[in-house]
Every structure is written in structure tokens, then in C-alpha cells.
Design a protein that fits this description.
alpha/beta; seven-stranded mixed β-sheet; four-stranded antiparallel β-sheet; 7 helices; 16 strands; binds ribulose-5-phosphate
Length: 257
């Protein structure tokens, strides 16, 4: 991966999060480009410090990358709980609610996050927003009767007072995109989500909906990366924000196996 400005911001957030990983931990490995940097740096730390880490990937893509980089993997069914999960986000609001699923991995991501003692969300600063909803909200539905599920979602949105919205079936070239579980994704263009907690509950009550991309009360630590190497670490529970400088050269210095 090339270190563009955007990638540099993602890398600083990723490196800062990997510093929380300790020897012996079982770690949920998120999906998307920011998480890919996290996997890359984790692999380097494991190799350099001879760490014993087990990873639980949240998508086939992350599994493949982690395997290529020599990270030992396990599954959720083989462990009682995960010590930590590090994952990216598409949006994060000031209450640390998230929209995830831009990479269609929201279902596994939510299960892995919920099974974790601590969740660190990493992103470049552009993902931090006042109100969620500019990024389309992904909803994973089973293929059977998906048009019915779509109509039910439309009715539910109207009931909840959303009037200016659009729902699109996510495509992969000319056919519908399939998630790792073989389901479909409906992207809800809502523009503004006023009550994420209510919406997530209501969407998940619709027949055919497997999960939606709202992650409410999931994030414990948010790390926002900047191009210049500065990160902001927001500790949600303790309501504490600290600024740190990350030395990107540490990434280049460390070598993988
Ligand atoms: C995948 C996700 C990703 O975490 C989210 O899309 C952010 O991706 P990126 O780091 O590439 O911006 O939720 O389902």
C-alpha cells in the first residue's frame, strides 16, 4: 500500500491502537483499509518483539491479509472472549456512535466487537462528524424476500419521521454484492440520523434484516489520525482526550517475517 496523505493519517491511528496490544492477547482484527494498516503493523510488532498473539478476523479479506503476514488466527468459537478489537469506521459522531459496513463486513464486525472486552476504533479525522447519516447506512438482509424487507424498511423509516431518504441495493459490478455470509446489503441514504439507538433497534426488528451498520455504545476508545503524525485518543468511559505524536518511521523500521 502506498503512503498517500490519507494513508498516513490511517497509519498513525492504526499504529497508536496496536500499542495497546500486549503479549498473550486474543485480538479482533477489523476490516477495511485502516484496519489493513493495523494488521500490517501488528505483524511487524509480533515479529520484532516475538509476541504470542491470536487474531480473530472480521472478514475473508482480513483473514487473507493476516495469514499472508504470518499472524496466528483463531475463531470466535474457540475462545471465551476477546481481549481487544481494533476496527475502522465510516463515520463516528460526538457520542461515539458509528456507521460501519462500507466494506460490507458489518455483521462479523459487530459480533466480534460485542464479544470483546475493549473496542478501539481507528480512523482518519475526516470520519469524525457532528451527526451520523451523510455516509449511507448499510443494512444486511437475507436474499430471500429482500424486496419485502426493503419495503418494510421504507415503511419503518417513514414511521420514524424520515422523509428524505433513498435505499439502494449494493452492487458489485453488474450483480448484487454478496457479503461473507452470502447476504445482500441495502444502503440507506438518510442524510441525518437523529436517534441512532432507536433506529438500530427498529431496523433489526424487521423480518429479513440480519444486522445494520449502526454501532451504538460499542466504541471504548476512538483514535483519530492526522497526516502530520498527530493522533487524538478519546477515552469514551473516562471522557478524556489526549494528543500524541506517532513516529511513522517505526513502521518502516520494523520488518515482517
Ligand atoms: C467495513 C468497515 C470499515 O471499517 C469501514 O468501511 C472503514 O473502512 P476504511 O478504513 O477503508 O475507511 O466497516 O465493513
Amino acid at each position: 500500500m502506498k503512503l498517500t496523505n490519507e494513508n498516513q493519517a490511517k497509519l498513525t491511528a492504526a499504529m497508536s491502537a496496536v500499542d495497546y496490544i500486549e503479549d498473550g492477547m486474543t485480538v479482533g482484527l477489523g476490516s477495511g483499509s485502516t484496519s489493513a494498516w493495523m494488521v500490517e503493523y501488528l505483524a511487524k510488532r509480533i515479529s520484532k518483539e516475538n509476541l504470542s498473539i491470536k487474531g480473530v478476523p472480521t472478514s475473508f479479506a482480513t483473514k487473507k491479509l493476516a495469514e499472508t503476514r504470518g499472524i496466528s488466527l483463531t475463531t470466535l468459537d474457540q475462545v471465551d472472549a476477546l481481549d481487544l478489537t481494533i476496527d475502522g469506521t465510516d463515520e463516528c459522531d460526538k457520542n461515539y456512535n458509528l456507521i460501519k459496513g462500507g466494506g460490507a463486513a458489518l455483521l462479523h464486525e459487530k459480533i466480534v466487537a460485542k464479544a470483546s472486552k475493549k473496542v478501539i476504533i481507528i480512523a482518519d479525522v475526516s470520519k469524525y462528524v457532528n451527526t451520523l447519516g451523510n455516509f449511507p447506512l448499510p443494512v444486511e438482509v437475507i436474499e430471500f424476500g429482500w424486496r419485502f424487507s426493503k419495503t418494510q424498511i421504507e415503511l419503518k423509516l417513514l414511521q420514524l419521521g424520515y422523509c428524505n431518504f433513498k435505499i439502494e441495493l449494493r452492487m458489485n459490478d453488474k450483480s448484487a454484492l454478496k457479503t461473507d455470509e452470502g447476504n445482500l446489503i441495502l444502503d440507506l441514504k438518510l442524510f441525518e440520523i437523529k436517534n441512532p439507538a432507536k433506529l438500530t433497534q427498529e431496523l433489526n426488528s424487521i423480518p429479513g434484516v440480519v444486522e445494520n451498520g449502526l454501532f451504538v455504545d460499542v466504541c471504548n476508545i476512538l483514535i483519530l489520525g492526522n497526516v502530520n503524525g498527530d493522533v487524538e485518543v478519546c477515552d469514551v468511559l473516562n471522557k478524556k482526550i489526549t494528543k500524541k505524536r506517532i513516529d511513522i518511521f517505526k513502521f518502516h523500521e520494523a520488518s515482517t517475517r
